[in-house]
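note to self: the first set is below, dont mix up w the second
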Amino acid sequence: MRELPPPAPRTLLHTRQVQCTGWEREDGLFDIEGRMSDVRTLDQDGARGNVPRRAGEPVHLMSLRITVDAQLRIVAAQACSHQVPFDDCTRINDAYERLVGLQIKGGFGKAVKDLFAGEQGCTHLTELLGPMATTAFQTLGPALERRRVARGEPLEDPASRRRLQDSCYGLRAGGHAAVVRWGARDGR
């Protein structure tokens, strides 16, 4: 396994952790959950209107759950701010219910930014939706393929090649994965 080269001498100041998980529900829907934390190595006093925090205690600790159908349409959304830098921050959680009805597809990021711009949202919860959208794709793809195979249908739906080919270097037209997957050396 490759590693980054050794760093210059340094001191840790901040750690952000993002964890996203995808779940298949018994009712056929999918839950995508995201959790984000920011931890600093220095104490923060309350001099700037923030909640005082000791070093090692999360400044931000937030969770978001979206429930999506097989077309990646959001049918439910809940946000929870467990630890926040300002007392008012928890009041914005209910705003994330406005995600209901959005579909995770091209333009999703812009729609999210428009919905939660400025004081209409929480910067950190809104940022969490990016990796959650990716997690939704990673969760649903294999689950829907498994469902198709169980029904005796082809492994991939016909549109998958159009969606996936040339979406990244690994799936570029004429690349090894494209040739194995779709048998096309010319890329089309």
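second set (the one i keep forgetting abt)
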Amino acid sequence: MMRVHRTAFALTVAIGLAGAAMFAASADAALPVGAKAPDFRTVGALGGKPFRLHLADQLKHGPVVLYFYPKAFTKGCTLEAKAFADAMPEFRKAGARVVGMSADDLETLKKFSVEHCRSVFPVATASAATIKDYDVAMPMVNNVTAMTNRTSYVISKSGRIVMVHSDLDWKDHVAKTLAAVRALKAQ
């Protein structure tokens, strides 16, 4: 009987470690600092209104914080959006724009842009190509629709990635990206 429990325990630990390794690998998967940020065009929403977003156009105004999040209206993504909204005066002072991206559809993003982004920064749809280009695909579990992992990029006006933070926990994304855009402004 004791041997069966040990085997079951060892199997449970092995499965848990394999799952943790899968999520750790996804959290580490990101474009490196210094890489050219892939350009893209997509649709998004700001204050509930749809618009077309082109990264190259955003970069003409200064650095861009491009943060990918898994799914609108989930707890972590809602808290992260609110934290970015609260920090928008500081991002603006540093001359940066913030754009949130997920695989959510436009109707969902229209609501999310008002309710949780407080109409102060846009959210946009990440296409399969953009998800691949930015290496932010969340591993699929139980054939769930494709989602992005939680990765934040700070992209300089020249289009180079100057900071990457990839962590499923939302709590440090705002502070780390804000520090990076402040450092850019100080240069």
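remember for set 2: The first helix runs from residue 2 to 28.
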